[in-house]
Design a protein that fits this description.
Blueprint: H1 2-8, E1 12-17, E2 20-25, H2 26-29, H3 36-46, E3 56-57, H4 61-73, H5 80-90
Parallel strand pairs: 1-3
Antiparallel strand pairs: 1-2
């Protein structure tokens, strides 16, 4: 794992998720072994010619922001819109 971080250094990666561009460091993607994003970082570490422009995910870009924050901080942050929807979904009385 340490060798992967050393190979990645401060190199940035651009991810196109649902048409929205997200930028981060390869080392951020390498935080969680066994995940798809880790796989991208690992492949780049062993083959630095991998082009970031080729990384496209047909997923909801708003949800991906939370996933990327989890990779960065190790904690899952839920957007305020999601929190606002919870009472109606689980039928919690308001007030």
């Amino acid at each position: 794992m340490v060798r992967i971080y050393a190979a990645l250094g401060d190199e940035k990666v651009t991810l196109n998720v649902g048409g929205i561009i997200h930028k981060t460091y390869y080392r951020t993607l390498a935080r969680w072994p066994g995940t798809r994003l880790f796989g991208l970082a690992y492949q780049h570490a062993i083959n630095p010619d991998t082009k970031a422009a080729d990384f496209f995910f047909d997923q909801d870009p708003n949800v991906f922001s939370s996933v990327l924050d989890y990779y960065r901080h190790g904690q899952l942050y839920i957007c305020s819109l999601c929190i606002m929807l919870v009472p109606s979904v689980v039928k919690i009385p308001e007030g």
